[in-house]
Design goal:
There is one protein chain. The protein is mainly α and 507 residues long. It has 23 helices and five strands. The chain has a five-stranded mixed β-sheet.
Length: 507
Amino acid sequence: MTKKTLLLLGFIVLKFILQYALISPSYDLHRDEYLHLDQGNHLDWGYISVPPFTSWISKLILLLGNSVFWIKFFPALFGALTLFIVWKTIESLRGSLFSLILGSICILFSALLRLNLLYQPTSFDVLSWVTFYYIVIRYLQTENIKWLFVGAVVFALGFLNKYNILFLLLGLLPVLLLTKHRNVFAKKQLYFALLLAFVLVAPNLFWQYNNHFPVVHHLKELAATQLVNVDRWDFLKHQVLFFIGSFFVIISGLVGLLFYKPFRKYHLFFFSFFLTLIVFIYFKAKDYYAIGLYPIYIAFGAVALGEWLKTGWKKYLKPVTIAIPLLLFIPIYNIAFPNKSPQYIVAHPKTYKDFGLLRWEDGKDHTLPQDFADMLGWKELAAKVDSAYLKLPNRDKTLILCDNYGQAGAINYYTQQKIQAVSFNADYINWFDLTKKYENILRIKETTGSQTELQETSPFFKTSAIGGAITNPYAREFGTTLFVFTGAQIDINSRIKAEIQEHKDYR
């Protein structure tokens, strides 16, 4: 085994160790993780919020035992593969051993550590971006037709994982058309590759068509409730923070693309970088949507610096160059990861606030970062639902109805009973089991809607009571209340069918 291979394996092992070590046991899974895991129980070619790829991984996790270990394994794996592709890119650009080490450290100690903590489509999205860019580089180096077909497969998988990869094309294709590399459009093999990509994504497109393009509704809802609060200046500021330790390497890559002679054939990447950012800014995208853009520029920068620091007094700057990402990671380690208890964060809010980490999607500051607050209270909720369920008469005829997908998914993941919670929110609206004749309802209501629930719903049942609430003050779901209604005096199934239809008509 060569020295390079040992180093690469060492970085990959360290990557996995860090991903498991950076989460405090104070936290549960994240609300989004529960939804993605439940999709594995309802395999389809599409979902309201995401394409199908994540559901395939969820099914695999389910077959492996559905434990937290495997849930955290796959985002860590995608992060490790991202590091591997950057390594291979540096090798293809004829980077030195120093360049390989620098590039790996920059990738390892970056925002990807935070991103790869959670089981969400974003980890594979970043991997798709860097892999597609690597394939473009390999095609520019060799003009081997096989890379067109490999690129088609990678793009299709990226598309089936997250539509965000379309931003990559919006930033790359116009630049490609304005350079000498536009001759690729004269190759008939390109159109066979495009046909292959279309065939691979067609089942998802067909699903979107059959379901009246829920992605359009999802994007409109996202724009109205979340993207409207995106500040473009904050977007740019966070781009620097995501790779603060390797920002100088990214800048070196951009400078190298202009002035380093061996990079002459890759000039299109310089212009594509800025065009892609402009597209993100124009659409007021969330800051983390752009993370996939940067790893390939770290590869360019590591190679350029490896050449510029090769001889003379400059070679003594190499240790400094490697130390910078490590040193700047230390303050990030202390605030960017859920490795501190909620009590600690509430007692030391200043640094979190200064870095904008307490700002939520509603545009306001809160006591914890939103992702951290979304990882609290779920076990408590599931335990109270289980307790109430066991006391019910005819409990096999009970509907567990939640206000949002986080509540439903958490109950389904942590429950000790054979129950399935649902909601009119997200994909759960398609997962109601209306073959049962329901007599009872366990109703989980968010704080804002819980005050009048008993008064409004009690007349339709023989008995009604409050079965508990989430009491963790740091949870985003603090105050979410469980209501217990038994002995229905109405046809619950008919009401549910009407409500489902109303939500679908709205979409």
